[in-house]
Specification:
Helix content: 25-40%
Radius of gyration: 23 Å
Distance between the termini: 41 Å
Number of strands: 6
Number of domains: 2
Shape: elongated
Largest sheet: 4 strands, mixed
Number of helices: 6
């Protein structure tokens, strides 16, 4: 840390400089404070009451955790796991080749809103194949499958990973 780090930090976050924040930026400050407060509230609601252990009644604030409740472990955009697939003739194969865990190695986690946009571009004739594959391959039952057709290949790069551009969303 530089010797004058305290001066730099106090110059930005100190109580006496808060009065110098331009009026036009104060709205952003209040928005950020409100969002942070909302996240803290959600964390309190979803928190596990350690004294009760890992049971459905561990979350008293919402009358316990029901099976159908989704309790996120992270704040932020909702995500979805997607298994990338190659089209091999009349069947879908994992993007990763060879290994006995090829499907697991073919999975990426992406924002749900991006998945919804990409799913619209999946050719209708492949959707039945996808559903059949999900029934046959146990590890795919709870994930989405994305066949990398020529139209969808630009969504994923072997070196860069998932790369959907803002224009594609």
């Amino acid at each position: 840390m530089p010797e004058d780090a305290r001066k730099l930090i106090e110059g930005v976050y100190g109580d006496d400089v808060q009065a110098d924040i331009p009026e036009s930026l104060l709205g952003f400050t209040w928005d950020a404070e409100g969002e942070a407060s909302g996240r803290r509230g959600m964390a309190r609601i979803n928190a596990l009451k350690l004294q009760k252990g890992y049971t459905r009644s561990s979350s008293e604030d919402v009358d316990g955790w029901a099976r159908e409740n989704r309790i996120p472990t992270r704040l932020g955009d909702e995500t979805v796991s997607v298994a990338l697939a190659r089209i091999d003739g009349e069947k879908l194969s994992p993007y990763a080749r060879g290994d006995e865990f090829a499907w697991e190695m073919s999975m990426v986690t992406i924002p749900k809103y991006e998945w919804q946009k990409v799913w619209e571009k999946v050719p209708l004739n492949l959707r039945g194949m996808i559903e059949q594959l999900k029934e046959e391959v146990r590890v795919l039952k709870r994930v989405e499958v994305l066949p990398l057709t020529p139209e969808l290949r630009p969504c994923y790069d072997a070196l860069m990973g998932w790369k959907l551009s803002k224009e594609e969303i």
